[in-house]
Amino acid sequence: MAKKNFKSLDSLNSVISVIDEATEALNDKKRTIAQSAIPDVLIGALGAGIGGVGSFAALFFGGSVVGLSAAGITSGLAAAGAIVGGGMVAGIFVLAAPVAVLAAGGVGISAAVKGKKLKETKDRLLKLAIEKEHSINIALKQEINATKERAEYLNGLNILLQRAIKDLQADIS
């Protein structure tokens, strides 16, 4: 399986920001990098000559169970293990098996739902990014007499949109 550029809905926020910025650029012909919500990204894209839509996701889970005594746990595990003719160690597997099966099923269903939504969102954003990139290219041609700052702004957006399109296409295919 190929490595995905956007592994979660949150990781698509950078693409959404670029699409939103492109919309603002098309609505305001005087807008430049100075008025942009993402000036550093645009300057970086211009400086590198290629767009870079960085994406990452971090997820932390944690928790603890308190209030169970060692004696209560060991006797419960021993009793559960006795069901299959074993002791405490067998009890761990007896008690864990139903939880593991149910958890795996729940995780599988959740992953399928999230995966479908992620793919649908990528498809939608890809279409939007292509539309915006096309519109930015038209603006670059129509605004032939634009200031240097405006031209750089549109070129930076164009680079970022091209990169987003490339990364989304790679994820979808």
Description:
The radius of gyration is 26 Å and the shape is elongated. It is mainly alpha-helical. The chain has one domain (10-55, 79-172). Helix 1 (13-27) packs parallel to helix 4 (88-142) and helix 2 packs across helix 5 (148-172). 68% of the residues lie in helices and 0% in strands. It has helices spanning 13-27, 39-48, 70-82, 88-142, 148-172. The model is unreliable at 50-74 (pLDDT under 50). The chain has five helices and no strands.
Give the arrangement of secondary structure elements.
Layout: H1 13-27, H2 39-48, H3 70-82, H4 88-142, H5 148-172
Helix pairs in contact: 1-4, 1-5, 2-5, 3-4, 4-5
Produce a short descriptive summary.
By secondary structure, the chain is mostly helical. It has helices at 13-27, 39-48, 70-82, 88-142, 148-172. Helix 3 crosses helix 4.
SS-based class:
mainly alpha
Number of β-strand runs: 0
The number of domains is 1
Rg value? 26 Å
H/E element order: HHHHH
Could you describe the largest sheet, including whether it forms a barrel?
Answer: none
The separation of the N and C termini measures: 11 Å
Q: What coarse outline follows from CA principal-axis ratios?
A: elongated
Strand content: under 5%
Helix share, percent = 55-70%
Number of helices: 5
Low-confidence stretches: 50-74
| Average pLDDT reading | 73
Write a concise keyword list for the protein shown above:
single chain; 0% strand; mainly alpha; 173 residues
